[in-house]
Write a structure and sequence with these properties.
- With 177 residues, the protein is mostly helical.
- Helix 3 packs across helix 5 and helix 4 crosses helix 5.
- The protein has 9 helices and no strands.
- 67% of the residues lie in helices and 0% in strands.
């Protein structure tokens, strides 16, 4: 699996680069990806999804979301619907995505508080070792969730800042949005 570092946007706009981008969309500059996504081109949505989904899922999981994957999908649908009116760079888009994620997380907390408490299926499997590739994917997520739970002495906003900076590797500018 490729890391988000493999999908950084290029800023070059020469004719030679343009023909290369038509064959390799991963080399497109952010403004080209944004324009293509606003235009409904699937390769651009895929590119933005790959860049945003993993950090968003880590943030939502570390903050105790019921279904981080489902929330990521909801967040990205809202972000993608906003693209025709979006103005800004890659940093602004990431900040906006995490702003939407935090709003969805608050909604998730409210929904959790209205539900009758039930035993989570995940709890039944916590002591069962994972097998194969699943183990390597789940271990960091479990460790992050456990580490985040130790931050209970902080306010919710302070915890969010730490999770965004450390877990999601956002810059100060992206975190402050």
């Amino acid at each position: 699996m490729a890391s988000s570092d493999d999908y950084h946007f290029m800023d070059s706009t020469s004719a030679r680069d343009s023909s290369l981008r038509s064959r390799r969309p991963e080399l497109a500059a952010f403004d080209e990806v944004l324009a293509a996504a606003a235009d409904g081109q699937s390769w651009a949505f895929d590119r933005l999804y790959r860049e945003l989904s993993t950090p968003l899922q880590r943030f939502l999981a570390a903050r105790g979301a019921d279904d981080p994957s489902g929330l990521v999908n909801e967040v990205l649908v809202e972000v993608f619907r906003s693209l025709p009116n979006f103005e800004g760079d890659n940093t602004a888009l990431r900040g906006f995505a995490f702003h939407v994620a935090r709003r969805r997380l608050v909604d998730n907390y409210r929904a959790q508080s209205r539900r009758v408490p039930t035993s989570r299926l995940d709890d039944a499997f916590n002591n069962t070792p994972a097998t194969g590739d699943q183990q390597s994917d789940d271990v960091p997520l479990v460790a992050l969730t456990q580490a985040a739970s130790k931050l209970d002495v902080l306010t919710a906003e302070q915890r969010d800042v730490i999770v965004l900076r450390v877990v999601c590797d956002l810059s100060l500018a992206e975190t402050s949005v």
